[in-house]
Amino acid sequence: MSRPAQPELKKFMDRRCFLHLQGGRQLSGVLRGFDMFLNLVVDQAFEELGGGQRKPAGMVVIRGNSVSSMELLDSMKV
């Protein structure tokens, strides 16, 4: 039996990210941790409400299967 591949999220660690979640919700914040199920710990999080409005959420844990997509807001160091 083969082991599941580890997620390639190390390059996103400690960087600001924007997350698109199921149900049309959006969140931004700093990725602080993840596990093999792609559950995420996001610090300094804000729920993006649209129209430039943001609601502070602090530190949140997001279940991996609720994440539709993730994009990096900070520039990558090469």
Automatic annotation (TrEMBL):
* Superkingdom of origin organism: Eukaryota
Pfam families for this protein: LSM
Chain ranges of the Sm domain: 4-76
Task: Give the GO molecular function terms.
Answer: RNA binding
**What role does it play?**
Plays a role in pre-mRNA splicing.
Q: Does the keyword RNA-binding apply?
A: yes
Which keywords label this protein?
A: mRNA processing, mRNA splicing, Nucleus, Ribonucleoprotein, RNA-binding, Spliceosome
A biological process (GO) annotation for this entry? spliceosomal snRNP assembly
Q: Which cellular compartments is it found in? A: Nucleus
Q: Which CDD domains match?
A: Sm_G
| Main localisation | nucleus
On whether RNA-binding is a keyword of this UniProt record, the answer is: yes
Q: Which family does it belong to?
A: Belongs to the snRNP Sm proteins family.
The record's Gene Ontology cellular component field reads: catalytic step 2 spliceosome; precatalytic spliceosome; SMN-Sm protein complex; spliceosomal tri-snRNP complex; U1 snRNP; U12-type spliceosomal complex; U2 snRNP; U2-type prespliceosome
Q: Which PROSITE patterns match?
A: SM
Q: What is this protein called?
A: Small nuclear ribonucleoprotein G
